[in-house]
Amino acid sequence: MTHPLALSRRGFLTSGVAGLALVALHPYSARAEAGQAHLRIMETTDLHAHVWPYDYYADTATDTLGLARTAALVGAVRAEATNALLFDNGDFLQGNPMGDFIAYERGMDGDATHPVIQGMNALGYDGGTLGNHEFNYGLEFLGASLAGAGYPVVCANVVTEAGATPDQDRTLVPPYAVIDRDLTDGAGATHPIRIGIIGFVPPQIMQWDRAHLEGQVTVRDIVEAAQAWVPKLRAEGVDLVVALAHCGIGGQTAEPGMENAAIPLAAIDGIDVILTGHSHSVFPGPDYDGVAGVDAAAGTIGGKPAVMAGFWGSHMGLVDLLLERQGDGWTIVSHQVEARPIYQRDDEGVVIPLVESVPAIEEATATEHQQTLDYVRRPVGQTSAALYSYFAMVADDPSVQIVSNAQSWYIAQMLAGTEHEGLPILSAAAPFKAGGRGGPDYFTDVPPGDIAIRNVADLYLYPNTIRAVRVTGAQVKDWLERSAGAFNRIEPGQADQMLLNPDFRSYNFDVIDGVTYRIDLSQPSRFDADGALADAEANRIVDLAIDGQPVDPAAEFIIATNNYRATGGGSFPGADGSTVVFEGPDTNRDVIVRYILDQGTINPSADGNWSFAALDGATVLFDTGPGAAAYLQDVTTLAIEPAGDAPEGFARYRITL
């Protein structure tokens, strides 16, 4: 069997990170007797190109991410015990501007090494697997990136040539690898051990990266591939099998094409340890309390030790094994599991770093870090209109429009060729920087002309991931009714009533593009502040239409949104997790960046798809930032005028309804 991306081996690195002080031994190392050995298995996962502790979108240092910080935990673990192995569980090539810079700008020509691989080589990884994001830039780029890895990268279910059975497949990278090591036991004697690693990736890559993969590879079901390959791995005389499973902890029963298959995977005979990821969660931990088949406190899946190390380097996963020599092999006597964080938050939410960066990792990637800074600070496209959010709560807004445009563009591609193709695609987006408690300067304000990647942070503050839901016309209307709770009830014939409900968060004011509608402020809100139905007879949303025709309550639509909203955030009708039909692997920020790169020049001018219904004799007041004055002439859907200063540095405007 040959593998087009087969990797070279490298010598085992047992040393810790230089400069770390020695610490007390782990109890397993301290208690191990002759013929017993303590083995530590460490995991990183979902690094998403975060090597430095730096938020390139915000263009500022941060204490919450970065392999350079996680490396300090790795060094400490190595210092605490004699025997340690370090693996990466995938999603390392893409996910921040450094990844995009290497893929779209610098490239991987000649003998270039990817900066994430440089960092991993400097830290001394022992193996890794592929995540779904490794395919975002195409197979040629992936192959060139993996060529620089000083450790084996394995994946058993991405197939370039299918065999009669999965274990006869020709796979993109080796399905598994065998690592031969010497373990030092409690008496100081050394003994050989053979450790097998096998990798898996979600089959959904064929949907998520269809343009790059269709006609070149196919993907096997994770459990199907494991059932075929694990016995072959065991037949090579291994003492221990570690599954590098780039999938989350989902249902207990195996289903064909299952994305989050960690629980049925753990049930396969021959697998001893499960390293999970993909879900950007922490295990063991409360995220998985009550999930059947797992012990969220002990860190086991099906009784086997398992770990998930957060994302972006936020944690290092650690499985401690006490092994005992039996004949020529080893058995697991006991185990402990933890996910060690690089930071914590105090009672007020302030970040407290728990480690400092390891200089060797930053030094290995210093050139690429500076190149990325230059990349995010220079133009990658142009905007033909200003991007501002001063009027986002009272009129259709360009800062929200560009997010909606990008989401619709992305979801249309992702749903092509699926059962959902042909349904109308709507897009829901809300203003994030809209004053309020953030103060009078807390607004997006990007002038026309050049737009840099770091400007995307102004447009989209949160690291949400893209989702699509399938809803009815009735749910679209109620979704908008929930958004309309942003406004106080307005009485006709009364002057200067305050428009905005101060307790309503701007990120819950979803504008839905693809339909047109008006908001009747004389009506009470249909939903209360928590999203519960308050008045079933209230109807603020009027004249709801698509392509000039009234929306049929029974008709079906796709709404592009984010993971927070799609799974119940904000309590929106039609968005409780049950209507999700697409879970994208990309953040909404990355979607916007890709859209800008694709379009070259974007036109974010608001299309005016929503407005307030007329109310005779009524005027309302709302407060915004002083910078709004520069864009007042752009607001053509409102009869609006300055109304003086407002408290705390805000500017006040009057709207005649």
TrEMBL record:
It catalyses: a nucleoside 2',3'-cyclic phosphate + H2O = a nucleoside 3'-phosphate + H(+); a ribonucleoside 3'-phosphate + H2O = a ribonucleoside + phosphate. The keyword DNA-binding does not apply. Its cofactor is a divalent metal cation. It comes from the Bacteria. GO terms for cellular component: outer membrane-bounded periplasmic space. Transmembrane segments: none annotated. Residues 443-573 form the 5'-Nucleotidase C-terminal domain. Keywords: Hydrolase, Metal-binding, Multifunctional enzyme, Nucleotide-binding, Signal. SUPFAM superfamilies: 5'-nucleotidase (syn. UDP-sugar hydrolase), C-terminal domain, Metallo-dependent phosphatases. One of its GO terms (molecular function) is 2',3'-cyclic-nucleotide 2'-phosphodiesterase activity. It holds the Pfam family Metallophos. GO terms for biological process: nucleotide catabolic process. It is found in: Cell envelope. Residues 39-281 form the Calcineurin-like phosphoesterase domain. PANTHER family: 2',3'-CYCLIC-NUCLEOTIDE 2'-PHOSPHODIESTERASE_3'-NUCLEOTIDASE, 5'-NUCLEOTIDASE-RELATED. Belongs to the 5'-nucleotidase family. This is Bifunctional 2',3'-cyclic-nucleotide 2'-phosphodiesterase/3'-nucleotidase.
